[in-house]
Design a protein that fits this description.
The protein has helices at 15-23, 48-65, 120-134, and strands spanning 33-36, 39-42, 69-76, 86-93, 109-116, 138-143, 148-156, 159-166. It is globular. The chain is built from three helices and eight strands. The longest helix has 18 residues, at 48-65. Helix content is 23%, strand content 30%. Strands 3-4-5-6-7-8 form a six-stranded mixed beta sheet. It has a two-stranded antiparallel sheet with strand order 1-2. The protein is α+β, with helices and mostly antiparallel strands.
């Protein structure tokens, strides 16, 4: 008996399939993609404002964190079997192999930061809840157009329980690095 479908069906990809497609050359090299909740998502192009903000934040974190953590730029975080988002700036627990054998998992991520310009709605509605539900301890969403930093803490099954909105001139210290103050 042949299997037939009565209606179109969405395919839910897992990380194994996602990697196999990449290995087979199905993705264009200069197109930014990520696997989120079984969907392959194409990210918008990186504008100078986005790139500059990512570089500024990562350089500031690198200058203070040093060997207390691993700062990543556009590095994947493995979240279950069907998600591997690329985080704009992440800080993971220090490991001697610098995550050369496996991407960090949520329990190892001390801070995930997304810089949002064109992706603000997607980041706020999809990535923030995904990070919270997965247990990432702290998430920052930098809305570069409005000049606002949203700080998400206390992860839960529903996302994050604590949200703080900071404006220019306010300061913030990452939970994992209270000695580091950023404006």
């Amino acid at each position: 008996m042949a299997l037939t479908l009565d209606a179109p069906t969405r395919h839910h990809f897992d990380r194994r399939e996602y990697y196999a497609m990449g290995d087979a050359g199905l993705f264009v090299d200069d197109v930014r993609i990520e696997l989120v909740a079984g969907d392959i998502i194409q990210q918008p192009r990186v504008t100078p404002l986005h790139a500059g903000t990512v570089t500024r934040l990562s350089n500031r974190l690198l200058s203070v964190i040093l060997d207390r953590g691993i700062v990543g730029v556009h590095h994947p975080v493995t979240i279950g079997d069907d998600s591997e988002p690329n985080v704009d700036v992440s800080v993971a627990e220090y490991r001697d192999d610098f995550y050369g054998k496996a991407h960090p998992v949520p329990s190892e991520v001390l801070l995930a930061a997304e810089v949002a310009e064109a992706s603000l709605d997607y980041d706020r509605k999809v990535k923030v809840p995904l990070y919270g539900k997965s247990g990432i301890k702290e998430m920052w969403l930098l809305d570069v157009c409005a000049g606002v930093l949203e700080v998400y803490r206390t992860p839960s099954a529903d996302g994050y329980k604590s949200i703080q909105r900071l404006k220019p001139g306010d300061t913030v210290s990452p939970l994992a690095f209270p000695d580091l103050t950023l404006e």
